[in-house]
Every structure is written in structure tokens, then in C-alpha cells.
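Example complex used in Figure S2.
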Amino acid sequence: MNITEKNKVFILEIENTQYAFAAADDGTLCHLHWGKKAQAEDFAARFEAFEKGRNGLEELSKTEYVGNSGQIFRPQAIIMNYADRCRETLLKYQDYSITRSDAFQQLDIVLADEPYNVFVTLSYTIYKGYDIIKRSAKIENRSADTVIIQKAASAEINLPSKNPYYSVNPNGSWGAEFVLEKTLVNNGTLTYESNKGRSSHTNNPFFILYQNADEDIGDVYYGALVWTGNFKTEIFRDWAGNTKAVIGLSDFDFSHTLHAGESFETPAALIGFSSEGFGSMSNQMNAFSVEHILPKRFANEPLPVLYNSWEATFFDVSDEGQQKLAELAARIGCELFVMDDGWFGQRKDDHAGLGDWYVNKKKFPNGLKPLIDKVNSLGMKFGLWFEPEMVNPDSDLYRAHPDWIYHYDTRDRTQIRNQYILNITKPEVKEFAFEVMDKMLCEYNIEYIKWDMNRVFTEPGAENLENAQELWYRHTMAVYEIADRLKEKHPNLQLECCSSGGGRADLGALSHFDMVWTSDNTDPVDRLEIQHGFSMLYPIKCMRAWVTDTNRYARPYDWDFRFNVSMQGSLSIGGNLLNYSDKELDIHRRYIALYKQIRNTVQFGSFYRLASFGNDGIYATQYVRDSQSVLFLCKGVNTLYKDRYYHIKLKGLEENAKYSIEYSGEKLQLSGAYLMNVGLDLELGGTLDSEIIILTKNS
Ligand code: GLA
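Predicted assembly (699 residues):
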């Protein structure tokens, strides 16, 4: 890891990657390279020659962070409007600085739009052990006039090959988050975005661009925005074959006012390159997120096995009913008991109660203390559901403060799930949202909050703001601020981020919350596809995965299958334990005990996708950490006899080490080399069969 500068040529030497750019004589920041390494001095020689002959339109495209000036007609990184009505942004190189420490190095490049005294600092941070760069931009208005930012991306990215790249991103929905679609970017601009106020179930704020790649080979360029609100990723290929991407906040209904002396910082984007396919990309991002993105307090602790009461009781919660569930949850080995929706206000269903965060006296005549004491006495922590950004029209809060929601006086107020969104860009409303949770945390021994957000934005009026188009940005920042304040005041509080399932499953959420609820869809086969998409760039340990009741599904899953799917993430239980036989409870107990033996490997180990339904008819993942390796195999719905036999080559083992493996009643000792290079022939039974195989490295 090292950052160098010579004659305004900047080179970021990362682990196996190099990123280079230079400031041209006219002040343009020109991109030179991102990929495998070359000799540093060659860039300077090449750039000098390029500068001399520079007049072609093609060369104009390789910019590091371009405004909408001159002949730049493609998607730009930044657009500002100035007080004299100039709507062009022309940034020129000014200066640089480098900060160095053992763990990271940061290069700050200062650009300026000189006539307007506006400065933009581009930050590039590289980290020991990772082929990842964190990028962001900070805009400072040092003039006496007001400047309006119309667009400010986190990063502009140039890809080296003139041949088209494939792009993957979810084209998802509620219940189908992270369902990846592949698109060839050969012409025009491909846009992934959310304008819904949350990163959403549809597209996700990341890009993956690749050529001739699979899990093990091929060039993959990727990036993820550390942001939970509206975003936009534009990927385009021009007439000359240059592929570029611009990723950052959405410019939909967005602007940001900078008064004299004010500044604005974009969210960060993490960008990375792998010449070894998707597997290496996922492992880099998995480990990086745990080390550098997740809130520190619990980042390195395995997540507890939780029980969540939602699917068991829905809104019909009661002191007695929850206590009964808690007893069974403890009996099967859960470590955390989370009471979901329904405990507050006049909440009978989703028509009333949001905003009235007092304990419902009918359901809990003596408050929550008896339940929490019971949960604690059973050796479990207690967690509670909130939806702090929301209000039902049928609530005391709304009756008292109808002006606390986003609205326009001339428009109907659209209800979605019978609720409105509180305008937490108002200081008093933000304080209210903090206080309702803080009060409960002070009064009760609550160690976990599931923070939900169940609707998209409509009528985004915010009369309190001088520039109401700032609300998208300010709302998300307010969510982060409240989460951070809660964690600061209650250091042992764990936060789960939920938004009708995975509507806020992104790295922005994971920089303030400890985990996400991945999807409301807990059908195990569907879930494997959702988990597959999530695992591309996001940390496995943060992926809550519930085992739920089989009668909800069209397919006849056995318990083994359900557990073998959910144990591939952060195992959680969500079924109605009261309906289970002793035998079924015992199955739960055994699997939870097994999960506790493997969870450090699953949550912190290297991770491999060995086979997927689409290609192989079987879904297989493997996790490796220290001397343990865990292999999961799940067979889909195909029944052909010939499809019963699978050949699986393992990954990430030590060639010369011997591994003990037990499979089909046979105990074997095999070398890493055999397991990885020759592989195992495995037989699975009919439809929806599954296996977990644990390998132990001999000491
Ligand atoms: C959302 C969540 C669910 C549950 C319900 C409660 O749909 O995704 O897990 O918490 O809200 O109303």
C-alpha cells in the first residue's frame, strides 16, 4: 500500500491493483489506469506524450470527476449553479495532500472552479490488505455568494477495455430483493436508481461490471455506495468504446444550497477491482465491511441467534403469548427474543397506532417489565420493533401534529400501508423520533431494536426547509444521526435495519446499523436466490435469515432444508413455536446448537459460491475459517434421476493439510489438494434435499 506523486501523476499502489491519474497542464484531472500493476515511471512518460498530442475528442472522456462544461455531454459527476446564472461547472487541479498511517493512506486532490471560489476535494483512501478504494467529494463554497449544487456524485469511474462489459444489478421488488439481472452495456446509458426515499427493493446502490468472469476468473470492477437513500448509478459506453460509470446521490428532485462558507460532503463509494472473478470481489467486500464499515461495537462479535415473533403472532401480541413463545425460544437455544409489531398505542392491525409509542395497556397490563424480566431470566436478551419515521392518520400523534409529515397543502396525502412519513428534517420531529426509542431504552432492559420503514415517499413537501429539495439527503442523514445517538447513549444496543424486508439493505445502513433484515420472503428456495444476490457485495454476518413455518409455502420443505438455507447467514427463528411438536422443537434445538459451532466460520470466514441453481441445479456454498470449513448443498425442484449426482470441488483449503470429513456415514481423511483439485462426488436425494458437511483440518 502506497500513494505516490511525481509531476502531478498520482499512483495508488493497492494490494494487487494500481489506480493512476494525472493533472494535465490545463488543470483537467485525467484518468490513466485501474487494474493490474505496471511500473510507476511508465505512467509519467506516457502521460507526457499524451499531453503533447492531446486534442482528440476521445481523450476528453477519461476524466476523474468532471463537471458539465465545454463538450462534456455524457453523464457528469458534478453540476453547480452560480449566483451570476452560470450553470457550468469547470474544475481545475489546484493541489494535493497525502495522509499516511499503518492501516490506511489517503490522497486528497483539491480542484477549484476558480472564478467562483468553489473548491472540490476528491478523497481517495486505500487500506492495508484490500484492493478497495474509498472515494468521496467535498464541495466548499469559499465565495460570498450562494451556490446551488444540482448534482454531486461520489465517484466517476473509467474502465480500461474498449469491449463492452456486462453489468449486474437487482431488478427486484418486495419479496424478491437482490434478484440479479445481467445486461450488456454496449451502447447508451444504463441507469440504476432509486427515487423512493430509500435505496429500495428494486435496484441496489452498487455496480458490478465484468468481462469473461465467473466465480474464479475474469476481470470484475465493482463499487458500492455507502448510502441508504435516493441514488443513481449511470453506466455508459461511448462511440469509441469507453465504458464509464458515475455513482452517487440521485439528482432526481435534488439540489443543495451552499451559502457563503458552507460545505457539502457526498456519501462515500467503495470501488474495487478483482482479476480473479466474483469470488474474490465478495471476499474482499465481506471482510472490508466487517473491518471498516460496520459500527465498531459489535463488528467482530458473532450475531446472536434470535427469535422474532412476527410470523407467529402478527399484530396479535400479548404478555402471556409472548412469554410462552419466549419459553420455547429459550428451550431451543435462542439468545435474543424480539417482539415485533403490535405492542404499542392502539395497534390492532396496520391501520392505527404508529407514532404512539406507549405500551398498549390491554395487551401488556403491567407494562413490558414482566415479559422482559422473563426473557432475561431465561438467559436471552430482549429486542423490540419500532417504525420511528412513521405515523398512522389514526394516532394521537397525527391528531396533535398533522403538519409533522411530508406534504403539500394542495395535494391529497397519499397513504401507503395506511401511514405517512414523518418529516424528520424538522428538529422537533427528529428529537421526537429519538426520544420515543430512548425513553423505552432507559425504562426497560432493551438491548436490540428492529428499526423498520414500511413505505416510499410521496408529496415530498418540507416547508421547514429553505431548499426543500434537500429533504432526501437530510432525511437519510437524520436516520443515521438518530441511530448513532442511540448507540452512543446505549452502547450495548444492537440495531437491525428493516424496510419492508430489504428496502434498506445497503452499506449506508450497515455503517450505522449492525445488520439488515434481508427480505420478508422466507421461502427457502427463493431465499437462496436473495442470499446469493446479497452475498455479492455485502457482509454475510449481517444477513438475518429466518427459519419459518412450512405451511406458508407452496413447496414441501423439510426442517433440514430450511435450516440449511438459513444457517448460510445469520440464523434466526421466525415460526410459531407454539404449534410445534416436541420432536420439531428438538430439531430446532439441535440445529441451533450446530449453528453455534459453525457460526464464527459462517459469519467471519472466507466465503465461496460453489454452485447455483441457474447453472448447476444445485445451490452450494462453502465457508472457511481457521481449521473449520462448512459446506452447504441445497437441491432445487428438479427431479431427474441423473441430476442426483453432483461433483463439487472445494475452495480455500490448504493443499498440504489433511481434513477430516464425514459424509453419508463415512469418515474420511482427505488432503486439501484432493478436495480442491479432484473434488467430491456427492449424491443428493430427490427434490429439495439438502446437506451440511463440516470439514476439520487436522492439527
Ligand atoms: C415489515 C417487516 C416485517 C415486520 C412487519 C411488521 O413488513 O419487514 O418483518 O416487521 O413490517 O409490521
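Residues 310, 340-341, 385, 452, 454, 498, 500-501, 517, 520 surround alpha-D-galactopyranose (CB under 6 Å). The mean pLDDT is 95.
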